[in-house]
Amino acid sequence: MMRANKSETVATRLEDNSPTRMFAPIRVHRTFEAVVERIVDAIDAQGLRQGDRLPNESEMAKMLEISRPTLRQAFRILENSGVLQIKAGQSGGVFVAADIIPFDVVGKNIASEVMHIEEVISSRRLLEPLVYHLAAENATEQQFAQIQETIELVRHHRHDPRIVQQADGMFHRRVAHACGNQMLLSTMTTIYRQLAPLRGALRRDADRADHIIDVHTRQLEAMRRKDHAGLESILDETFIDLEEEYGVKRKFSIRWHSGE
After folding, report:
1. What is the CA radius of gyration of the chain?
2. Which tens digit of pLDDT belongs to each residue from 32-82?
3. Mind listing the pLDDT tens digit for each residue in 188-230?
4. Rounded to the nearest 10 degrees, how much is the dihedral formed by the CA atoms of 152, 155, 161, 163?
5. What pLDDT is stored for residue 251 in this prediction?
6. Domain ranges in the chain?
């Protein structure tokens, strides 16, 4: 007897508006971990087996009300753990990879991801202030103008979370270019690339966009004035969101000394 494909049943259950629906919006810290647990629970609760299809990436991200980079972070853990198989192309999708979920492997991979996240966020706190202080000293007016453009981009698209997130990343990268140190630029580019899915876990509404506009505007003004003390205070505000989201405790900080 041919086993019925459960994808339609799963999709129907996931779209259910009842309190028991499997992929209700996520409202917790360390969002990727909650996503992993939610997907595993859904597979268990529905009795899914190897080869059964789950909703695709865009559908699942919409159900969970999370960013696609954050969802991909969870997918990566589950794929590396042998729980999911991600197939590309028109006939591709998200499939259950095994009949039995290896909970021990999933737990180890989550712990490894948490450790990696802590390293990335801590490295940012250590190195990013150097980038901003150097940009304050070295940036040209043209570079400051290019940084200002990213703030205006957020302002004009404050209701579009995708563009806001892209413009936010562009702001940080342009500051890194303006610092005038190629080694720091290369290092920060790697850090920013790994921060991208983490930022997706933060609030994604117009209030978040307004917060970005406010902080970035004050950062730019401080850099233009070469106000290093003021810049340090503002930078601290930019670290708090991700550190609180992922439970990373502040381990160190640096202070700028002009040498005068």
Report:
1. 21
2. 888 999 999 999 988 999 999 999 999 998 888 888 888 998 999 999 999
3. 999 998 888 787 666 777 898 999 999 999 999 999 999 999 9
4. -20
5. 63
6. 7-101, 118-245
Say if CB 46 and CB 13 are below 8 A apart: yes
Mean pLDDT of 225-242: 90
pLDDT of res. 18? 40
Query: Left (φ > 0), alpha (ψ -120 to 50) or beta: where does 31 sit?
Result: alpha
Maximal CA-CA distance, the chain: 83
Whole-prediction pTM: 0.72
* CATH annotation of 7-101: 1.10.10.10
Q: Decide the pairing of beta strands 84-87 and 53-54.
A: unpaired
Q: Which of 73, 81, 76, 89 is nearest to 246 (CA)?
A: 73
Query: Nearest CA to 201 among 172, 237, 242?
Result: 242
Sign of the torsion angle spanned by Cα atoms 187, 193, 198, 203 = positive
The domain made up of 118-245 has a fold known as Four Helix Bundle (Hemerythrin (Met), subunit A) (1.20.120)
- The string over 161-197, giving b where at least 16 C-beta atoms fall within 10 Å of a residue's C-beta and e elsewhere, is beebbbbbbbbbbbbbbbbbeeebbebbeebbebbbb
Q: What pLDDT is stored for residue 201 in this prediction?
A: 65
